[in-house]
Amino acid sequence: MAADNTTNPPKGCLCIVLHAHLPYVRHPEVSYMMEENWLYEAVTETYIPILAYFNNLAADGVKFRVTMSLTPTLCSMLDNRLLQDRYVNYIDRLTELAGKEVWRTRSDRVMNRTAHLYLERFSFCKYIFNDVYSRNIITGFKKLQDAGHLEIITCAATHGYLPNMQSNYSAVRAQIEVAVQSYNGFFGRPPRGIWLPECGYYRGLEKILDSCGIKYMFTETHGLLNADPPPPTGVFAPIRCREAPIAAFARDAESSHSVWSADEGYPGDPHYREFHKDIGFDLDMRHVAPYIDPAGIRINTGIKYYSVTDKRNPEKQLYDREKALSRAVAHASDFMLKRINQINGIQTPQNGSPPVVVAPYDAELFGHWWFEGPEWLNYLIRKCAFEQDTFELITPSEYLGRYPATHTCAPAFSSWGDGGYSHMWLNETNEWIYPHLHRMEDRMAECAREHSRSAERLEIRTLNQMARELLLAQSSDWAFIMKTGTTVEYATRRVKEHIASFIKLYEMLKERRIDEGFVALLESHNDIFPNIDFRVYA
Amino acid sequence: MAIIHRRNGARSRVLRSILRTDTSGADITVTPSPACAANRAVNNAPAYTLPSDIPKSYDDTYARAIPKDPQNTFLYWERPREVTRECVFPDKGTAHVGNHEVDRVQQQLGQDWYNNRHNGNNSQWLSDNGHWLNNTKQWHSGGQSLHGGNDHGSGGNNHAAFGNFTAMIDNLIGQCKQFIEDHKHHKYSPAPSSGEIYKVNEGAQG
């Protein structure tokens, strides 16, 4: 019953975009760093479950198309030997803890069922990670892309917020060019599309994207609605940028609301698993001590027994998996029906192109923040395939291949951050970083031009490491963390270390007194982009 | 290839190694794998530390602005004190860096400044050099590069450096005015952003 583009042409298209990103966090100097858990939690709760569901969909012959951005920093971490080894240790500890929980909760039927769920889940993750993908799950996503189910796009090299770099052309270009090179290394071909970090767009950026071979990008809703001139199709068709042949798709606000809204979104359903009540905080320290921060700091373990219940009521009900999954089914139906109504209500433009609804989400929403998210996604894709024929799932490349962008305009400065512009990354909590970042960018360009034609091997290593330090300092995550006030100390320390390391390398280079030991230390510590060439800044 | 959750083999081996019932009814003894036990006995002292001291200024003369949204632009600059002392307040000795530029930009744009903020650790730039252009209903910003240019080092010629510096500020003011014009019709209606969902389920957290 699925819509197809031959005998039963769809009235519209739905483009689901999952943006998977984590900042580069890797600390070989210690045996435990709490912030590395961001990766391990995401692998356990989001990436492996999504990968498993996508593979099952493919095996069941379900036609589906999903777009995923896997950022260069995330791919680099997933590909990193040290982090792979540490993940195995992490999942082993978690599995052991889940086993203890099965015993501890044996007298409570409901809790015990949930404990069994975690034990099975963690064992499954270990099996998938270790046995199926030999510790590198990137290969799983690549196989899905090669089979035509997934379109993987790139993102800026270290997720740098590009509007705040726009005064330095080479800085922005390097973020894109390094990303393209990184993508090529992991997936065997250049990327067609890019997810701009935080959907941060400024006028003129498309020229840089085009020079790096990118064919399309995504903007926030008002990036297109405020375009010059505004497109007659609103956000329901891509536009062609005026200053370069790049297509731009814009986020649809209506489909976002169902999922993202704190008040009305699906994840707030009372039957879904509650995020914050974790045994890492609730149980006696003697029970959880071996499984939390060695310094005795309580952290999330991922084992939680309660449902959202009522956001205003601190008394939580026990989590009932069956009820939660039935809600996920209902929400998948609801989302699908809303898209049917939405697409039926959109007037098709005169050129006959069906409207496309672009629905992007952070991938980590599914499974990590919204525990039942991967299941919802699975149900949604199956329902779309078998229970309706109004729209089809599509990727941007597929859409552009059938219906090239016809309206030409200049998108507007915009982001999907709070406030719609740059507030999250430029405010009183984080503005102090920009004079340093801009100075680093200027110096990097200066050194790249000066040494572009001839440099000794140690100088090349120094320059390449300067490029890495700059890229890592530019990660928008640090400024975001400073604003949200979560792990501010860590983010501040990271920025300062990259700035200070860069300055030291720069001064050594200028004074022609390079300490090879220091360069080697940084190379082993911040080992991202092993094949980087500093000349991207020339 | 479908990912099948195997019912025997690896998964069962994992379960059997973890769950060992004790028929005496005593609390279960879970024997950790050697890897897990070793991981718990960690010595987490860092093997090395990286430099983290960053300069308070770069002893250089430049100005730069970053558009933030249709109402705000972040403008910052640096001008060595020697230049200021010699060129701005030549008769007054110690000068308060920054107020002169505040007055000039305010005069040019007809805006109200909000007060300088001397915020210690994280605003060391603002206390000396940078200022928010805020509360400016006429302001709009856009995607053009705002760069007044660099003058790396004034050498011994502070007057030349000062002249370049004022030109930078004037250049930036001109660009900002153009932004106002380019974006005065922009509208923004917030769609739920990624930040909202993280507020769901706010509850007790240890």
Which features characterize this protein?
heterodimer, A: 538 residues, alpha/beta, ten-stranded mixed sheet, 10 strands, 48% helix, 9% strand, globular, B: 206 residues, alpha+beta, 4 strands, disordered C terminus
Polypeptide structure, described:
The complex is a heterodimer of chains A (538) and B (206). By secondary structure, chain A is α/β, with parallel strands linked by helices. Chain A is 48% helix and 9% strand. Chain A is built from 19 helices and ten strands. In chain A, β1, α1 (37-59) and β2 (66-70) form a beta-alpha-beta unit. The longest helix of chain A is centred in the N-terminal third of the chain and has 24 residues, at 81-104. The model of chain A has no long low-confidence stretch (mean pLDDT 94). Chain B has helices spanning 10-18, 34-40, 81-87, 99-109, 124-128, 158-183, 194-197; strands at residues 61-69, 72-78, 131-133, 147-151. Chain B has a four-stranded antiparallel β-sheet. Chain B has seven helices and four strands; from the N terminus they run ααββαααββαα. With 206 residues, chain B is of the alpha+beta class. In chain B, 30% of the residues are buried. Chain B is 33% helix and 12% strand. Chain B is flat, with a radius of gyration of 30 Å. The interface between A and B is large, with 115 and 84 residues.
